[in-house]
Amino acid sequence: MDDRFTSAQVTKLTGITPRQLQWWDERGIVKPQRKGRCRMYSFDDLTEIAVICALRRKGFPLQKVRRIMKFLQKEFGRRLAQAVSNGSEYHLLTDGKRIYLKNSDRQVIDVLKNSRQPLLAVCLSDAVKEVKAEIFSRRPAQKQAVQNTGKRRSS
What does each C-alpha distance from 152 to 24, 90, 140, 142, 145 come to in angstroms? Predict the structure, then answer.
């Protein structure tokens, strides 16, 4: 997937504010490419933003989210969307101090059984699927808008 997304598209797809997106860029949490003054986000960027949003909705402060994202990059050795798109289910579990990354239901159950305190879980694979579904559900509307604009110009 080679698509690029503008800041406006990213905010519509993820529900975050333009200011949050700008702040995350300034802090190096998500570093988009630039086209002049415009920020252009890749699918990989969009996926990471979606995971960050999921963690923030679950109450994680941005400092811990940063730590989790660094952990994921180190564990995968590549971008999150690339690692998770191979068909395996990846689950991120944390007790607030330790971070666990598991790719099978059995491993998740073992971690949950052996945990001495509550854990928060985020299915990374689901986050990637949700982003893809959201992008593809909006595509026909975008193509239709372009087609309608083209028809108006030729009239």
Answer: 39, 47, 18, 16, 11
CB proximity list for 122: less than 8 A, separation 6 or greater = 51, 54, 55, 58, 91, 92, 93
What's the token pair of residue 1?
């997937």
User: Is 48 in contact with 70 (CB distance < 8 Å)?
Assistant: no
Cβ atoms of 91 and 122 within 8 Å: the answer is: yes
Backbone angles phi, psi at 40, to 5 degrees: -125, 120
At 48-61, the pLDDT tens digits run: 898 888 888 888 88
Which CATH code for domain 4-86+126-141? 1.10.1660.10
**How many C-beta atoms surround the C-beta of residue 15 within 10 A?**
11
User: Against a cut of 0.85, is the pTM above it?
Assistant: no
Structure tokens at 120: 């928060």
